[in-house]
Specification:
The longest helix has 18 residues. It is built from eleven helices and eight strands. It has one domain: TIM Barrel (Alpha-Beta Barrel), CATH 3.20.20.60.
């Protein structure tokens, strides 16, 4: 049921806005603010479990975090699994089935610096395993062409479109292009990959929501930005407290009772 609900959110009306969560608490708070779905930030989730970003998170930690988040929310959950934490496509598929069995209905999986062939194999294995399990899984394939500066201008657009076609043939349902900010490039990519929805990442200088819709964008993710901002706030307040200045901690805060009520059974 949640799988169909999550899939439908990519069809409108309006953009699917995903302020990425990093643990059960942040997920429940974001849900309470009206989010129609929750997506995790791989970086924020890894940090919250005591690991660096970059495919270093052990599978059991991802499973534990997913279990915690599913328990805390009622809206659909999509989990960022980076590159799947393995080079073995079948191992990636087994991990995905594990989090799907807990209640997740979507994943992000990325190509990074690897050949597109590697991600194609992983998508194919994940798609097949999800189908065998009878789970309606939304696979959002992330390509890092823009994020890692693999190409620029028209060449970048062409490379993204080529990879999108290959990932779609392998079984993905959506395309995530972090680092993409040019409206003309968005329009070209969105038109070329239809009916797959185009997902972009929030960043400074991004066009307005209205413009993004005009360019054909269907989904916008916050990435690790909110988690980083929360960490910066913690840094500032804890540093002040350690230096003997604690008054700022009692300024703009979430009210204790309101927060506690979010987690009442």
């Amino acid at each position: 049921m949640r799988g169909k609900e999550f899939r439908a959110l990519h069809e409108g009306p309006g953009l699917l806005m995903l302020p990425n969560a990093w643990d059960a608490g942040s997920a429940r708070l974001i849900e309470s603010l009206g989010a129609k779905a929750i997506a995790t930030t791989s970086a924020g989730l890894a940090w919250s479990r005591g690991y660096p970003d970059g495919n270093a998170l052990p599978g059991d930690q991802l499973i534990a975090a997913t279990r915690d988040i599913v328990r805390a929310i009622r809206v659909p959950l999509s989990v960022d699994i980076e590159a799947g934490y393995s080079d073995d496509a079948r191992a990636v598929a087994r991990l995905v089935v594990s989090i799907l069995n807990l209640g997740a209905v979507g994943i992000n999986i990325e190509d990074g610096v690897d050949s597109p062939d590697v991600l194609c194999k992983k998508i194919d294995a994940v798609h097949e395993s999800a189908a065998q399990s009878g789970i309606d899984l939304f696979i959002n394939a992330r390509t890092d062409v823009y994020l890692r500066g693999m190409a620029t201008g028209a060449a970048a657009v062409e490379e993204v479109i080529d990879r999108a076609a290959r990932y779609r043939a392998a079984g993905c349902d959506g395309l995530f292009v972090p680092g993409l900010s040019d409206g003309d490039a968005m329009s070209a990519i969105a038109a070329a990959i239809k009916p797959m929805p185009l997902n972009i990442m929030a960043m400074p200088g991004l066009p307005s929501i209205e413009a993004l819709q005009k360019y054909g964008v269907r989904r916008v993710s916050a990435g690790s930005a909110i988690a980083q901002a929360a960490a910066h706030c913690t840094h500032r307040l804890a540093a002040g407290f350690l230096a003997g200045a604690s008054s700022e901690m009692f300024g703009a805060v979430e009210e204790y009772g309101t927060l506690n009520k979010l987690f009442a059974a």
